[in-house]
Design goal:
The complex is a heterodimer of chains A (390) and B (111). Chain A has 390 residues and is α/β, with parallel strands linked by helices. Chain A folds into two domains: 133 residues, 3-Layer(aba) Sandwich (Rossmann fold), CATH 3.40.50.2300; 225 residues, PPM-type phosphatase domain (Phosphatase 2c, domain 1). Chain A is 39% helix and 23% strand. Chain A is built from eleven helices and 15 strands. In chain A, a hairpin with a 5-residue loop joins strand 11 and strand 12. With 111 residues, chain B is of the alpha/beta class. Chain B has a single domain, classed as Transcription Regulator spoIIAA (2-Layer Sandwich). In chain B, 41% of the residues lie in helices and 33% in strands. Chain B is globular. Classes of the chains: A alpha/beta (390), B alpha/beta (111). Chains A and B meet through loops of A and helix 2 and helix 3 of B.
Chain lengths: 390, 111
Amino acid sequence: MGDRDHPDYKILVVDDEPDLERLVRQRMRRHIRKGKYGFEFAGNGVEALEVLTEKTDIDIVLSDINMPKMDGLTLLQQIPEVNSDLRSVIVSAYGDMENIRTAMNRGAFDFVTKPIDFTDLEVTIERTLRHLDEWRAALASRDKLVAIQNELDVATKIQQSILPDTFPHVDGCEVYGCMHAARNVGGDFFDVINLDAGRIGLAVADVSDKGVPAALFMMSSRTLLKGAAIGVEDPSTVLREVNDLLNETNDAAMFVTVFYGVYDPSTRVLTFSNGGHNPPLVVHPDGSSEELELTGGLALGAIPGFEYGQASVRLSPGDLVVFFTDGVTEAINVSNEEFGLESVQALFREPPTPTAREAAEMILQAVKDFAGEAPQFDDLTCMTLRVADE
Amino acid sequence: MNVQVEHHDKVLVARVEGRVDSSNSQDFERQLQGAIGEDVNAVVIDLGQLAYISSAGLRVVLLVAKTLGQRNVSISLCALSDPVQSVFEISGFNRIIQIYDTQADALAAAG
């Protein structure tokens, strides 16, 4: 609540009738004393603009129409240039519809007629102030939304920036990956980690749920995985360590499915451990393909102390390994049909096998074409490893 | 998505119908947690009418299983369709949550 020196609302009364000030102060004395309304007075439009320029906290302008120097209708046109966060109420002669219409067209919020009925004026002021409060609240929440949107945009950039955008040039193979988040921030990630002796660590992962909580969990998962991958030889040990670390603080029961493999270009052997992730697809040069075996794993973060299995596969020249998240296979079209693994396999049935980059882009494009106008709720991630032709 | 609840003595059976994905997983969590009162010894979640579950839905199942585990209430799933069974196998959740072929099997085990 305000007080007499700091009223809740300030009203500027503009009228060339000198007795009006005394009348307003007398009839509104209760509101003035309680600090609800404070009043300023001006004798014409020019004076009113001077007051508005000097005092920027005026909430309502209550203005007569016919005044010397500058009339009320001209004042209405000038007000937005000085203060756009107030509302104007016009005082007009009874039945003067032409001026009232002009005033409303020029942005007046309401009008009262002469002679002023102060009960009616109070009602009009209250209505105007309620509208102004709602308007200001709406503006504030819009500003807040804009601020949140801006922060999300920053988060999106941060998240995209930690995903690899350059890929190692290694003799004997090429790697490519990309991610499209369904919302501003996503729960998918992939990583390509340079290990010793020319080996490459390849990870693709999908955090349960979407949005900001998933993105935070994704960031810590990715960092933990990278740290473990550099220090540890076996993919199964990498997943065990990350799983135990994620379980230390995880009240929300979030989890992340991770496929992690180490590829050695000199032997063409991919050693991998699958932590609850959909198995990658190996596409052969003749167009046939099969999924890599599950290794008895479990999504990371679910329970501590879990022992992960691992397996190895020796790839052949020309083989393509497609790592992806279920956003690819579970994308739905307008008829609610899933894209499915078969659709991924069908893309590569006709030789020759595309390059790593072509393959990843083909898949994402095919998913987009399939989904059409259907809304997508899941992130799309695709990473590819292409063994060089013989 | 809809959760229907029946009580068999101190065993609560929750039947989940429809699809559970990130768009309705919070509602799924509310319905499931809300259905489980203090006075149960075991919870059987019947997924026979569940057409699809995403990882967001799995998270809810895991959360409920963890909460019940702390209270020493057993939890099992039953009657999974092939696609749903495959989601549990790939994620590895079939290794940490008991799954039965039929509701009768689950109830017999929950005794």
